[in-house]
Amino acid sequence: MQKNIETKDDLELRSLDTMCVNESRLQHRGYHNIKYLVLGILFGILFIKAEVISWFRIQEMFRMQSFHMYGIIGSAILVAMISIWLIKKFNIRTIYGEEIIFHKKTFNKGHIYGGLIFGFGWALTGACPGPLFAQIGTGATVVVVTLLSAIAGTWVYGYIREKLPH
């Protein structure tokens, strides 16, 4: 009996620690997703104009030859920090009035392993998941292999997740 309680508690802790959970109960019609498509297209154009999707820029970053990508990543982190602070300070809600909740995350060694695997993949392919679609949209069709590999890797992780140490 005690083992079942520990397993349940462990699962609850792991779900908060390793997964994003969409707690929204709102139901929308399909056409509401058009706003995400438009925002994604605009974000892709921004990536292209800022040269974030450039394989050469990414290689410069990993070879420590240019500050360009570090500046963009640092700016994104700063904007995220300020945004989270404002959301918490003024109790800002979603556009639908739902409360925004931030869960505490505990650090574990899996973050290091995952970060290293992510970084190696990023360095080898010249692409991280964000700009993959923008790269494909610019005509770099070879990136489809990277996209399919990312999808396969995500599927494999989901399949063996419970067997991995977290």
Automatic annotation (TrEMBL):
Entry-linked InterPro entries: Sulf_transp_TsuA/YedE (IPR007272)
Pfam assignment, any one: Sulf_transp
Transmembrane segments: 36-56, 68-87, 112-134, 140-160
Protein origin, superkingdom: Bacteria
Assigned keywords, A-Z: Membrane, Transmembrane, Transmembrane helix
UniProt name for this protein: Uncharacterized protein
The species this protein was found in: Chryseobacterium salivictor
